[in-house]
Amino acid sequence: MQIGFIGLGKMGNRMVLKLIREGHELIVWNRSEAPIENLKTIAQNLKATKTIQELALSLQKPRVIWTMIPAGDATEEVLSEVKKYVEPGDIIIDGGNAFYKDSERRYEELKTKNIKFLGIGVSGGIIAFEEGYPLMVGGDKSAYEHIIPILDSLAKPKGGHAYFGTGGAGHFVKMIHNGIEYGIMQSLGEGFAVLQKAPYKFDLQKVAKLWQRGTLVSGFMLDRAVEALEKDPKLDNIVGVIAESGEAQWTVEQAKEEGVDVEIIKRSLEFRRRSQTDSKVQNSFAAKMVAALRQAFGGHEVKKK
Predict the structure, then answer these.
(1) In the predicted model, what is the mean pLDDT of the chain?
(2) Catalytic residue among 174, 190, 247, 266
(3) Vertex 115, ends 152 and 70: CA angle to 5°?
(4) Over the stretch 220-235, which tens digit does the pLDDT of each residue have?
(5) CB 85 within 8 A of CB 53
(6) Residues 181, 190, 244, 247: which is the catalytic one?
(7) Distance (Å, rounded) from C-alpha 298 to C-alpha 128?
(8) For this structure, is 174 an active site residue?
């Protein structure tokens, strides 16, 4: 299929490359030129445009335009520009970590113009390029059905996709996914911190590798802990400053609206915020582990000593 793709950050550039390798025709735009030039060295048949208008006019109808932009003002700005050049029947996809109420608003607004909107939560981090992306879809159901070949390609070999409902349903599911992710990472960080302080001088890498072998805590995030400990067994080179990108806060706020207690997610979020200013937290093994996990699965920068 032909796809217009906007946003070539850590996730976007890998998704574009995967789609090209799966035989799709990609026409891309990015604010800066460097990611485009880097991609062209790998995918010579990549087409790039100088403007969003040029991208839209280059696409066959019905257009499929996928944006992969950080949530907030940047997404709003890009989508406002895209809306100028699309027509009834075209499909706009927001694959960033948008707040679900923003996706709901965009869906309803575009629906009045007969433009189809999808909000897709994309998970899997940078390793999903090889493993396959899990894709949480909300919005126009006919648009979802139209782009199934694209989603199938992104999901290969071990990922998947599912449609959850209209409006912001996909981004709602992704929001909760990320809130749970905070709790899992925090639990691993705290557990390994206790092991690290124990009187037995445990080899943490050895513990983690055993836990991979069929235990109840085995899984994606523990595998990333093994990778982090292989690189730096004591995490001595990391300062435990942990960024937070908004989804856990949205989860806490939504839970409050619904009268649901989410103490683990809430505490995990508070810990991250303390790590940004509190040197005691920054020097804790738990904070170092969480920071290392973020780097391992998402390519997020860690502060080095």
Answers:
(1) 97
(2) 174
(3) 65
(4) 999 999 999 999 999 9
(5) yes
(6) 181
(7) 10
(8) yes
